[in-house]
Amino acid sequence: MEKRLTTTAMMFSVGFVCMLVFAVGAFFYGVQIGMDKVEAKYKSESGSEDNAAVASLPYQQQDLVSFYHTVFSPYREFQSKWLDAMNKLSQGQSMDAASTFSSLAKLADQKATEASTFDMGKSELLGTSQIGYARSLKLFKDAASKAASASKNAELTELRNIILEESNYKAAAKEALNAQTAYYTAMQKWAASIDPDIPDTYTVKNALALKEWSGQPLIIKNVIVVNYLAERGELEGFYPQDLTSRVDDFIQSGQAAKMKLQTAGAIVDLLLSTDAVRTGQFNDYKLRYYQSEMLPLLPFFLPDQGQ
After folding, report:
1. Which residues fall within 8 angstroms of residue 272, CB to CB, at 6 or more apart?
2. I need a surface site. Which of 2, 89, 139, 162 has the fewest CB within 10 A?
């Protein structure tokens, strides 16, 4: 009897171990499949027939939330550390530039892998944005590696100028800004599928009159802002809605009229040139201006989150 029980126990243990090995293997196989899919999209042209086929699919809030956590957050984590390093260079703070940018190169590579793990391609704009962020991180990796090498023969303030003029950095910033535009446009598509008063498409005007700006819902104002940022090549640490809220407050407070500014673009230029926007300012104005506005439940739209 004892021998039978021992044999049974052994068979059970072996079976359990086999199931565990199979489950772990299946998990990593699934992750690899996801990475392979995104890599395939990364290498393909954006105007493929597959993209056209999914363009008509409605955008779900869960898609936007999943994108935030699996793609946007890894990118933002890297961007935050990159901008911190660049700020230290601009202020001439003492730092080991070679070590800092070598670490940033490794981090960019890691975050590119994270952002590519899950396939967001069922929603065209989210797929486009994911590819853009992955490309941006790969380019940032190259830019950081070159910065680490250049730091050996350049002063800190000089190094910052070298980085800003480096081709990989410029391409990385452009990809990130275009990816941001696609993400916020996907939010607009989501809102339009719920509220018939929100347009499914909107053509952004550079010379947008303040009356027309003020008449737009917040979700459209954010789309206008991300397009302005992309057009101007402004890679900033704040969120687009932070800039949106500053434009609205500038108008509502009477400052725009006092300074005779007549377009939203002019206000954006002024706020950017004077470094007058901070991360989290959207939440400072949310109750004042946006209580009835439709927004997806994303952390950066919620108080004390996503900062």
Report:
1. 232, 234, 236, 243
2. 2
Residue 6 domain flag = no
Q: Are residues 54 and 151 in the same domain?
A: yes
- The answer to whether 183 touches 126, Cβ cutoff 8 Å, is yes
Q: Which domain holds residue 107?
A: 49-184
292 in any annotated domain: yes
Tokens representing 102 are: 């070598």
pLDDT digits (tens, 9 = 90+) for 24-69: 444 444 434 444 444 444 444 444 444 443 444 568 999 999 999 9
* Total domain count, the chain: 2
Domain-embedded: residue 152: yes
CA distance 285 to 283: 5
Exposure string (b/e) for 141-155, b if CB count within 10 Å is 16 or more? bbbbbbbbebbeebe
Residue 159 and residue 71 in one domain: yes
Q: Kindly state whether residue 131 falls inside one of the protein's structural domains.
A: yes
Given a cut of 70, whether residue 155 has pLDDT beyond it is: yes
CA atoms within 13 A on the CB side of 20: 6
Give how far Cα 1 sits from Cα of 4, 11, 13, Å. Answer: 5, 15, 18
Q: How many CB atoms lie within 10 A of CB 1?
A: 5
Q: Which tokens in the block code for residue 223?
A: 């789309």
The domain boundary residue, chosen from 149, 184, 219: 184
Q: What is the pLDDT of residue 4?
A: 47
Q: State the DSSP code for 203.
A: P
Are residues 174 and 85 part of one domain?
yes
Same domain, 208 and 142: no
Tell whether the model's pLDDT for residue 143 goes beyond 90: yes
For the stretch 171-181, pLDDT in tens is: 999 999 999 99
CA distance 297 to 51: 26
